[in-house]
Fold each of these.
Amino acid sequence: PDTWFENANRRHYTLQRVSARNGEAVAEFYAAQTDTAPLALLRLNIKDATWFAVISGDYPDLDSAKAAADAYLQRTGKEAWIRRFAAIQDEHLETVASTGSGAPSDSSSDAHSGMLK
């Protein structure tokens, strides 16, 4: 069965908490998350290289994604990387793990680098 991430509207936004080529490190980061936000651990193909990423939440517009990213920054001191689902779905190779429904929660988002893609 498809996960919340795979069924997400391609025009919506999500927050990427971390991305790296080291799958073990990203899996450890995923396992350490304690908030209630829906999460997905993904294997991606970016420029012919395999990357792993943890994403969180499904936000219908850029303003709500920015608000979630700001809340995550306040809570964790880390910047969220706001991305459209379309870009991640196009890079997607495999959903390694997933929790939750993808709906926004009070514990908002996350990420690695605060870039908008």
Amino acid sequence: MFAIYFLKPENRSAVDAMKDDDLIGRQSIITKDASSFDFAEPGLIVLVEGSSDAISLVDRRFGSLMEKLNKDRSDRLYALIKDEEKRADEGMGFLFG
């Protein structure tokens, strides 16, 4: 399960607070610059991948600081982020293979 959020720059400390949380911090948390994904407004894209309990906790504790993206947009961004990770892994394999 995953959820993707838009985080304004002034709320960036929320990412550190998420990583410090006992449950949320054990999930995969990836941040990307929103401008890399054609967002007009400056900020971060935050991908949280893990248990439904952890994502529910993110929504409750940090929902007022971040905008949860709708399913269509989240699915598109998730595919782009995973493709980017795959290409990076393949590049490292090529270098060290």
Amino acid sequence: MSSKITTISRAGLNRTKVGLRNFEDANDLVCSDALKSENLKAYIPSNLLIRKGLIKGVDTYFTEEYMDDNITSKISVLDVKRLKRRINNNGVQEFVAKQMAVVTFDGNLLPNEISINSVLFQVEPFVQRVIQCYKCLRFGHVSGQCRSTHTRCVVYCQIKEEGHNCDDSNTYCLYCKNSNHRSTSKDCPPFQTQQKIKKKLWHCLT
């Protein structure tokens, strides 16, 4: 196996990036009994196996099944998912279809366009949305994964206590230290910085 390895470098805590000559060699490494005997695990990063693209202007009456059955692409399509937005309907949260869909392609290239029932759609890179915790208000995880022992108020960013009640007149941003917007606002400069990081990461992986 050592003769098949081209590069070795660190890739973070307890992780090593290994470059190999081709996909066959990579698959051999993933299935290696030698690694398993040392309680080590190898995997091929998903960005080398698939690529996700965004299409816009997709009629909302197109179901995911319909799109999957009627899509035509130069690159094999693995999956099609309709994007939805969350709304508050009289206190009940509902998800409404958007005129956008995410298409997962086999391999690490995106086609310029695809067609659904002979209608052409331009394919854009799909950049993952910024994840923000609604418990501690920090980025990079959701409330279900949060380790914080305190819950912050989304409006004012202070720690919530029993009987807590806040309105927009008390708006304050945890990051900007001013009252121009909430800590969860998409207009918040740190939020926009996180978006730029996501886009740069996508281009680094292509």
Amino acid sequence: MKRVLVLDGEQRSSLAVVRALGEKGIPVIVGSGLNSSLAGASKYCIAQEKYRNPLTNLSYFFEDIQRIIHLQAINIIVPCTDITSSAVLNGGSVLHPQVLIMAPSPEQYFAASDKIELINRACKLAVPCPYSKVICGIEEWKNLSAEQNFPVIFKPRASVLIKGGTLLSTAVKIVHDYKEGAYLIHNDSGFSVPFLVQQKIEGEGIGIFALYDRGQPIAFFSHRRLREKPLWGGVSVLCESVVPNPQTIAYSMRLLTDIEFHGVAMVEFKRDQKTGIPFLMEINARFWGSLQLAVDAGVNFPYLFYKLTIGDQICSVANSNYLRLRWLLGDFDSLLSGLVKRHPASKMLQQKRTQLLFEFFISFFRKTKYQVWRKDDPIPFLVELREYLRRFFF
């Protein structure tokens, strides 16, 4: 068995990878910027290692990864966020030449992650996308805002930008007027380079999970977001598997095939609540937050990608079971956001507080699996709960 180093141990996606590989008997080491991490607490983790933050100093990060490779005899590295993916794919040449990276090629990764390039590609391939405009500075924003219906979405070119050999983490913002946008352009480095202004789409989120082998589809899985954190849009806290929609599958295949993609990806859409059209949001060219849902439903993306990486033959995977997945502490945060804050920009928050409470508590009685809590692997949840309470009260 190859020894696997899973990075970003503080992420739920990393925990899902560790469990999915560990259950197959694969030795998994967890790396993190923390002394102890969520994924590192799993019974399937045989060792934890700490590395320095690649956002602070890439050279130190690579020194630490090289040390871990030699100390733990690592054969495969799995980056699970855009930060470590960008770092490893940009500097893979400084790592041990025999170490394999469970990720697409740098060219494929950046083709999928560059939001401006992705929108251009989607338009060429007739994949529906929100009205989008590339903005290169304050004057262009001033001209656009005069004719713009608010709110709009400010999207940096990528989740992680590379500037002068350093990594810069960015974030998508909801903008409600010209002044708010101007402030971001002047003060947020993510908008100091060309970025996207997009129409805000109201509707349910749809994710198409995919595994590709050198441009050929191997596995698909689809999920629907039921609740997010915060309620008006963000990370999924309650989701369910759904039968893949032929339309969104076709759109995803157009994009990934055109990129000649290899590896795992989640293609995100939002189905407009007025027209029913699924609009492309983005592609995550790495493991994603709701990965555990697919694994529990019978599509083990980490193990399939592991087998691809070591050169094993795998068959196409088509079937999966219906399932709901809940991130309990995230769902509690979502509930609080709905009870305490009311977001004027979202038309989806028409629920009364009593309805929010009812939906939260009724979820305990529906057939649902929990993302972090597992009876046979409970320690990660206890670690998460400890950190949550520490942040909540202190």
